[in-house]
Automatic annotation (TrEMBL):
InterPro entries: 6-PGluconate_DH-like_C_sf, NAD(P)-bd_dom_sf, P5C_Rdtase_cat_N, P5CR-like_CS, P5CR_dimer, Pyrroline-COOH_reductase. GO terms for molecular function: pyrroline-5-carboxylate reductase activity. NCBIfam families: proC. It comes from Oceanospirillum sediminis. GO terms for cellular component: cytoplasm. NADPH binds at N57. Residues 6-100 form the Pyrroline-5-carboxylate reductase catalytic N-terminal domain. Its EC number is 1.5.1.2. Residues 164-268 form the Pyrroline-5-carboxylate reductase dimerisation domain. This is Pyrroline-5-carboxylate reductase. One of its GO terms (biological process) is L-proline biosynthetic process.
Amino acid sequence: MQNATLAFLGAGNMCGSIIGGLIAEGYPPEQITATRRSEAPLKEMQAQWDIQVSSDNIATVASHDVIILGVKPQMMKELCDQIRDQVQASKPLIISVAAGLTAETLERWLGGDVAVIRTMPNTPSLLRCGATGLFANNKVSESQKALAESMMQATGIALWVDKEELMEAVTGVSGSGPAYFFLMMEAMQQAGESVGLTPEVARQLTLQTALGAARMATESDVEPAELRRRVTSPGGTTEQAIRTFNEGGLTELFEKAVKASANRGKELAELLDQ
Ligand SMILES: NC(=O)C1=CN([C@@H]2O[C@H](COP(=O)(O)OP(=O)(O)OC[C@H]3O[C@@H](n4cnc5c(N)ncnc54)[C@H](O)[C@@H]3O)[C@@H](O)[C@H]2O)C=CC1
Ligand SMILES: O=C(O)[C@@H]1CCC=N1
């Protein structure tokens, strides 16, 4: 995997997180190039990771094996128009991180007959704690699949889905998911303040509790439901809090939120593929 040259076109929040994770995992920085519209953030990325940077998408496509399309879905058509001829000339592996846009749309925008892997990563990739879903079109070879998988595994876990529509489900759960936990942290800190803690104490207790709970859930074989039961003493304090969450319909609310994110992915794909 470490022989492949990787170009991140539109290296903002998400691709910056993947690059940071790859560098932390020991990927050779001289084999990574990032492009972006403005020079200042590119210079920062170069100083931070010692990677190559460029503002020339076409020349960058020409000189790399794997092209990661990192722009917002709304900017993707313009980027594909710009690089199409070069993609047809050098036929690199294309990896998209964009929400919604299908592999078929991307392949068509790039002129057809292109190996496209659609991924849905998340920003904890930066800490090699990412979660990525992947789907490959039928032009992708087994060795290209293995390369994309090992690249994303370097930033966390990487799981393939066999039906492309499941990429919307992945987006609803793990692509958007870090924001749900951040929202919970914000809400819990505020609640801590409402029962008298200072903002700093409420913040520290909230974040350490989130970290501890996530580590217990991921580092043991015990299911989250059982871990929850072990905190919830019959007739005790937690029981009252859990009852309050259940009465407020937390499970149903999560289902609605995940579906809203997934549906927006489908909607974006339809809106943008004109
Ligand atoms: N932010 C997140 O948590 C996640 C984002 N994604 C996907 O990642 C993609 C990017 O999202 P973010 O990183 O949040 O956006 P961002 O706005 O931080 O990064 C995109 C970058 O692309 C640059 N750009 C736009 N057009 C360009 C062009 N033609 N050439 C070079 N650079 C160009 C922009 O200036 C910007 O710096 C989106 O498609 C999104 O759906 C996927 C999973 C999670
Ligand atoms: O909010 C978004 O559209 C992107 C995709 C998943 C996470 N962030």
